[in-house]
Design brief:
Two copies of one chain form a homodimer.
Chain A: H1 7-10, H2 18-25, H3 29-35, H4 44-57, H5 63-70, E1 75-80, H6 86-101, E2 105-110, H7 119-126, E3 132-135, H8 142-148, E4 153-158, E5 176-181, H9 183-195, E6 201-204, H10 211-226, E7 233-235, H11 241-253, E8 260-263, H12 266-279, E9 289-294, E10 307-311, H13 313-329, E11 337-345
Parallel strand pairs in A: 1-2, 1-3, 3-4, 4-5, 5-11, 6-7, 6-8, 8-9, 9-10
Antiparallel strand pairs in A: 10-11
Helix pairs in contact in A: 2-3, 2-4, 3-4, 6-13, 9-10, 11-12
Chain B binds a DNA duplex through residues 17-19, 27-34, 37, 40-43, 46, 61-71.
DNA sequence: TTGTAGGCGTTATCAG
DNA sequence: CTGATAACGCCTACAA
């Protein structure tokens, strides 16, 4: 249709490239690159011109091309067993917001809870050249990650300071850790339950392979002992509502029941409460007191109004992002650590 | 430390590249590439050898390099206002699983609900060269997406067949649609409520700018009319528990109340129920009947046990993935459409 | 401050 | 079936 038919014009509109912008601005390709890099030196008016033309053409630097040479993909991988578990989705939400603010995008990977990290998933992930990896799935050791994930730097969330990390001795891999000190919050929970007369406690666990669960159980038992309370019953769980419900029914139908239940997570506590109220005809908190862990949004809903140990999500995400950025700035820095506190949020499931 | 000090050896172990594998296998770089592409022709034993050596070296093709030439990033962008909203997180979970199975990774982007799509976010996203984009945020028109997102193909979820799409007339952009037929499910809901004696209805909306909400309200009113029922009261909402709770309190404290409430989503219905039961001293379903929309996992929890209109998540995700794959196979195919049905799940919040 | 040359890791193309 | 060569879009290094 144009006066001088041109093969290029026949093609459908391709994405504008740096060359296109350069040609229109009468500068070199490199100048365009510099215009988009704040640190590069470039005469202000030239930069402004380039940016203006780029905007008109809808040009954006291609991350793939950039990643090839800078070795920074600006991609952060997040490994989760269940995006739809409330706690995880709330964490992913906050994390994505924070990372986006720093120019990183969140890449989601799912792994099954019930088995150890799939090797195929790892090699698959490696292909994307992630800058960092946050493994919420606790069935994967940081060594495995370090070993199989190129330049990505894993961050490991652990729940005690004495290094209960599943890494082989003699490992040379450096990994950063976010330590969650759960003892404070759990102690407050036990104290409150004890004060309201609980004598027989049960601990409803999460997935047994989960480090968070293992450490939570250990801390709970330890605190029970410190307070001169008898060893708690331990109920099998997997962080789900359904299992929590079933385990609670078992506890009261087969056994003699208890008067205080501490659940490894909030969703489990919901299952406990519903089993007590709707299947066993018991009152919460009058007959049985219940405490959860996480303080997800749903715990504030009036039907549950759950007393629970809170991990501050904003703090947690900020700490994670700090770790990521510091590690990216200096890949050879020694292992870094951030510590997080927990505290009890008192609502209506412990009382008289 | 080695006998012949070598500069390369001094560096810390870099990721293995195709050349490394090629050298060790005694083949060309291209052969390595072919070994990882099932369709390429390569003698079986040669492929096996290459794959074996690649595994030993921990080599995986680099997606960035590959994307540069194939123009396929294997990245699918998902735009959401709230990852932590249960419905969205459940959808993202299912979608990630499905996409992962097809070799695509899910890239998460957050946009604020309360304002139209940020242009900065769009250019930011473009840089990642997404293969496809699913906009759950309904405040962004497909035209905007098509215009500013290079080769990515947006998929649009709409809620009526008569094209209530916010695209400018004269637009030439092709976009695929997933149509959710909500009338069937809503009609079943109204029929049930009516059968149990509801006379005065209220509709609790979601975010007013949300297409899902607009169409849900329209369908609800339309069905009310068809059944000879009076126009429903419309309550302001934004899909959140808190707002639903407050709106319900208003409704009964300022006005005369109603005996049937239809909420634009399940979480809103939870807020309604809790307001009725815990703040207003009313019984559900005896005094007021409540129906939700979505059928999230929490709706089955005994404290709510919500009667709700279900969109089958598995169906929905399968349809989305079908659209993505078909469009990727033939970028110039005419616009495609998938349709989804809804149906009522009867639980305990409508009855006598 | 600016431009030129080279290469990041991969696949498409073409020749054998 | 296989290999050499030339891109893909970008940035770093160097030279002017």
């Amino acid at each position: 249709m144009s006066e001088h038919p041109n093969i290029q014009e026949a093609k459908r509109p391709e994405r504008a490239t740096a060359d296109t912008v350069a040609k229109l601005a009468g500068v070199s390709r490199v100048a365009v690159s510099r215009a988009f890099n704040p640190h590069a030196s470039l005469k202000k008016e030239k930069r402004d011109l380039i940016l203006k033309i780029a905007k008109e053409l809808g040009y954006t630097p291609d991350m793939a091309g950039r990643a090839l040479v800078t070795r920074r993909s600006h991609l952060v991988g997040v490994i989760v067993p269940d995006v739809c578990s409330p706690w995880e989705s709330q964490e992913i939400d906050a994390l994505t917001t924070a990372l986006q603010g720093e120019g990183f995008a969140t890449l989601l990977f799912k792994t099954r809870t019930d088995q150890s990290m799939d090797e195929r998933l790892l090699t698959y992930m490696k292909g994307f050249n992630l800058d960092s990896i946050i493994a919420f799935a606790e069935n994967v050791s940081p060594d495995t990650l370090t070993h199989s994930l190129g330049r990505a730097v894993p961050i490991y969330v652990s729940y005690s300071e004495d290094g209960s990390l599943p890494n082989q001795p003699g490992s040379t891999s450096v990994f950063d850790r976010l330590i969650v000190d759960q003892k404070t919050g759990i102690d407050q929970a036990v104290a409150l339950m004890q004060a309201y007369g609980c004598r027989n406690f049960a601990y409803l666990g999460g997935t047994t392979t989960s480090l968070a669960n293992t450490e939570r159980e250990r801390a709970f038992k330890c605190i029970m002992k410190e307070r001169g309370l008898p060893d708690p019953l331990v109920l099998q769980g997997d962080y789900t509502y359904e299992t929590a419900l079933a385990s609670t029914l078992d506890l009261f139908k087969v056994g003699e029941g208890v008067d205080g239940i501490f659940s490894a997570n909030d969703v489990g506590a919901f299952g406990v409460i519903d089993a007590l109220r709707f299947q066993l005809g018991l009152r919460v908190p009058e007959d049985v007191k219940v405490v959860g862990f996480d303080d997800i949004a749903q715990s504030g809903w009036l039907s549950y109004n759950l007393t629970t140990v809170k991990i501050d999500l904003e703090d947690r995400v900020r700490a994670l992002v700090r770790l990521i950025l510091r590690r990216l700035k200096d890949p050879n820095a020694p292992a870094m650590t951030e510590t997080l506190q927990t505290r009890l949020i008192v609502r209506g499931t412990v009382g008289s």
